[in-house]
Structure formats: C-alpha cells, structure tokens
Amino acid sequence: MTMAEDLTHSWAVEAEDLVKRFGDFVAVDRISFNVPAGEIFGFLGPNGAGKSTTIRILCGLLRPSGGRASVGGFDVSRQAEQIKQQIGYMSQRFSLYDDLKVEENIEFFAGIYGVPDHLRKERKEYVLKMAGLEEKRTTLTRLLAGGWKQRLALGCAILHQPPILFLDEPTSGVDPIARRGFWDLIYQLSDAGTTVYVTTHYMDEAEYCHRLALMYRGKIIALGPPGVLKEQLRRQTLLHLDSSDPVESLKALKGQEGILDVAVFGGGLHVRVRNAEAAIPRIRQALGRRGVEIRRLEVIPAMMEDVFVAMIEEEDRKSP
Description:
This protein is α/β, with parallel strands linked by helices. Helices cover 38% and strands 28% of the residues.
C-alpha cells in the first residue's frame, strides 16, 4: 500500500492542543484540527495570526512547545525527517533560480527531492504539462511573469509526488487572474488525492477551500466549510452602503442602536444589523442629519470577509 493510499484511512494532518511560544510570546495557542486526505484545507487570517508558524511546525521545521501534531502519520516532534520526505512545500519565497531555464529548474529540484533517474524525464514532462509551461521550457526563469513563476514553483514542489502539499501564502503579490489559474491547478491535485493545506489572507481564496480555519492572535476562532461559516451570520443582516462620504458615514453609524458593526468594503461600507427593516430608516436619518447622500443601501449576502470581520469583532469583545 502506498503512503497516499494509506492516508485515505486516516487523517493526513492532525493537531491537538498545539502550542508554540517564543519567550513570553504565544504564537500558536492550543489549536486543534484534523485534515482528511484529498481535502483543500485553508488557514485564513491576518499577518501575525500564527498561520506560518503552524505550517512550519507541521513541516518539521519548528518544534512545538506543547500539544501534539502528526503529518502523514508521523509525529512532528520525533519524526521530522520522515515528514519532510512525504510533503511538498511552497511559499511566496520559494527559491527558483532565475538564471536557469524553466526545464533546468525542474531538473535541479528533481535532484534535490531525490526523484529516481529513470523517472525524472516523465516527471519533468508531467510538471511542464500540468503547469502549462510546455511552450516555455527553454525560457529563462527570470523572464517569466509572476503567475508563470508561481506555476513553476508549484510544479517543482510536487516533483516527488508528495501525498500532502503545504502552500504558505503561495499567491501573495500575484494578480487575481493568475491566482485563479493557480487554484485550478490546486483543484487538479486535490481531485487526484493530494491533501492541500494552504495559508492565505485573500478572502476570495478562502471560498475555494473545502474547509477553513479562521486564525486570530494564535487561536482558531472558527472552523468549517465556507458555506457553514457564512450561515452563522444568517441570524444577522448585512447591508451595503454606498454614500457620498464613506468616512463621515462610518463615524455616523458607529454605536447606533441596532447596528452591530460597520466596516469599509471597497469604496463603500458593509453594515451588520439585527433587523434591516428597523435599521434602514435609522441609517437614512443619521446620514441625513450630517448631509451625507445615500446612493445605494440594500441587503446583500455575506461574503467571507464579512464572516472574518464578525468573528474578530466577537473575539475582541471576549478579551479583557
């Protein structure tokens, strides 16, 4: 039985009360979660939330301060070297060699990952085809656009066919069209049985994951499929407000009766209210008193960003 097949009968990634301290600072604070084989599991949160620290522990690069975790059945504290042989890893700082051609980078990383000589040509052609780089195989890597470099980096990370793939902020700094194409590749890998664990701060990318962990100040504050997390906001109503003065509107609505939260969204505001029928007239009155023109005010469905803002607001209210 192969490692990938064995993982279908167990968790690909497990964490229980995982803790990481740096001196007095707690970067990861007693988090627990399980990831089944073939799932795209997203870690969503702002910079400094503890996402990258967690992924470094799971990749065997950092020892935890407490709790336990395993990847592919191997313990992160005792079997880090075995874990490194079973995973692929890619981050926004994945080191491609700009002075090498595309196929030369692939050949180099095939050697680094210990791909057997008789399989290297086959694996190289697979990566070139998967990433859509067949016509660019002889192009110097430094001449590739960001989206193509990203595809090449992903291809290099899976040359050894790892059953579990860790992607740490892999699309940072890449344009939205290139990011969507990158996620098409992730879906292909997931459909083929690869477990994909990805950290991101892009809210639109969170929608692409099968399940999400929302991380804030080292803690997981919510866990579940994107649709289920959004369902938690159904007991409240979300309004989109487009006005002549968003800053003045924000000041006017903060603390108003029946308004739970106001957040900037694009060029307008998202306003969470308990009851739209009662809140809308109050909003019109509050802005009218300040001479602010309302261009659009309507109920809209919650997006992942709204969920995350609501969860953070609730977490902050719990803090002493």
